[in-house]
Amino acid sequence: MKKTLIICAMALMSFMAVAQDNAVRLYAHRGGRAEFDENTQSAFDGAYKAGFRGFETDIRMTSDGELVLLHDSSLDRATNGKGNVETSKAKQIKNLKVGKSRVLFLEDLLKWIEKKGDIEYFEFEIKSDAALYSDEAVKEMCEAVYHRVMAVKPIGATFVISSFDPRPLEYLAKSFPTAELMLITNEPVNNTTIDKAVDLGVGRLAGRIDGTCYNAVEKAHKEGLKVNLWPTEDINGIILGISLGADNVCTDIPAAAKKAFNKNLPWYTIEY
User: Fold this and answer.
1) pLDDT per residue over 131-184, tens digit each?
2) What's the CA gap between 87 and 203, in Å, rounded?
3) What confidence score (pLDDT) does residue 187 get?
4) What distance lies between CA 141 and its chain's CA centroid?
């Protein structure tokens, strides 16, 4: 029994040493959608107050070319409105609410980022569904998003533009070679998704935690890719993402996660 305890203790110490040597960025998905009104100012303020300096948001374009932070094309789930983002004008959406918070537009978020001045990581996901966005509309979104977000990026911060749709990534890679770009996939990190990211010429790959193995993450790193894993809706999911060797892990519970890691899991080296 004593020998078993010693072995377990040594294993734990070794694991803690590895965790200390490999910092991971934990960032707030949609500002922390399980704790706050997703993609709203209250969400970003809430995660910021909890100590986070890393965030993710979703960007769609209204019929009159305004960029709004909504995950779904349909207004029905997240807001108190009806219809679709892409067929609505900005003025029709500005007064809608997500929970108790008003719908947020990109211009408002960027003012907040500029005012704070200490944001370290931000992922801007372009939601350019093929059925809703022509190639020309994708180019318009890419140009607007890239120039606007880069204009407020703090020195030393990492701003990533991501998408499930390869079109914006292809356009941005060609037009802005130094841009930090990420392919998002509903699949795990594996040979197929790694090859897709490499072929697109992006530097980052976001895959589902389910089905991702350590060897696949290691292979992605050898291919020069940084790995993001999602989703993490509980502490165990975050720990799994870290254990798999991810560079970044998104979380829907930023406040609860930071409290849990600070109190109960201090050996993890985490950037928030």
Assistant:
1) 999 999 999 999 999 999 999 999 999 999 999 999 999 999 999 999 999 999
2) 33
3) 98
4) 18
Q: 93 in helix, strand or coil?
A: helix
169: nearest Cα among 190, 198, 191:
198
Tokens of 189: 């990190």
Tell which residue, 217, 209, 189, has the closest CA to residue 250.
209
Question: Which of residues 22 and 117 earns the better pLDDT score?
Answer: 117
**Number of domain units in the chain:** 1
Q: Is the pLDDT of residue 17 over 50?
A: no
Alpha-carbon distance 168 to 161, whole Å? 9
> Considering the domain boundaries, does residue 245 fall inside one?
yes
Closest CA to 180 of 154, 161, 205: 161
> For residue 22, what pLDDT is reported?
64
Distance of CA 111 to the CA centre of its chain: 19
pLDDT at 266: 85
Give the pLDDT score at 150. 98
Residue range(s) defining the domain that contains residue 260:
23-271
Residue 218 lies in a domain: yes
> Residue 100 pLDDT > 80, yes or no?
yes
What Å distances lie between residue 242 and 20, 246, 250, CA to CA? 11, 6, 11
In a domain, 161, yes or no: yes
DSSP line for 19-60: HHHS-EEEEEGGGTTTTS-TTSHHHHHHHHHTT--EEEEEEE
Find out whether the peptide bond into 231 is cis, omega within 30 degrees of 0: yes
CATH code, 205:
3.20.20.190
Instruction: Please name every residue paired with 205 in a beta bridge, in sequence order, or none if there are none.
Output: 183, 227
Q: Is residue 249 part of a domain?
A: yes
pTM > 0.85: yes or no: yes
- What's the length of the chain? 272
